[in-house]
Amino acid sequence: MTREPYHVKEFKYDEFLDLKHLAGEIMKNRTKDEKGKQVQWLKIKRIKYVKGEDRKIYFNYDMSDEFNVMDIGDNPSTFQLDGAQNHNYSTRKKKRLTENDLPVSYRFPDQLNCLYKEPLKISAAKKKDLLNLCRKGIIPEEVHGWFKNLNVDSQAIDKLPEPAVDETVSGEEE
Question: By the 8 A CB rule, do 145 and 46 touch?
């Protein structure tokens, strides 16, 4: 069986955007689904967004058709405008909700900040290993120069990432 090759999109350091602040502003709930269960982000297999339901994230932990739902904040359409009364009957004057009417926390910023101000540095040990792979011919010769020009951080220590504290161990039930 012949498989399609991967299509690689290379990014420069200044093309990565800092979305952590944005997520904190617009996602008021990131921990519980609508049933009150803890959302285990590292176990999510699929995420689905539905047009018109922009405050909800549908997700599942397997590839089934059943999705869990996480409401990430108050629904902005419930905000009252111009001193409107909260009642169940219709009034003649209705104002369409615009972006300017939304609380500041529901507005997207005009510009996002770059995540990195300069190219990331690697440890001296990692650079040594990469250059060794170049010498052995494992890394193609046309990119050797790129690896030779990588910046080194003398303080960097290589380590594996720590697992998330709130994630359960594989195979463990809640």
Answer: no
Count how many Cα atoms sit within 13 Å of the Cα of residue 104 in the half-sphere of its side chain. 0
β-sheet bridge partners, residue 69? 58
- Tokens 């409401």, residue located: 71
**pTM of the predicted protein model:** 0.48
Token duo for residue 156: 């960097």
3-state secondary structure of 69: strand
The residue ranges of every structural domain in the chain are 121-174
Cα angle, residue 69 at apex, residues 66 and 71 outer, rounded to 5°: 170
Give 80-109 pLDDT, tens digit per residue: 444 444 444 555 555 565 555 555 545 667
Q: How far apart are CA 20 and CA 115, in angstroms?
A: 9
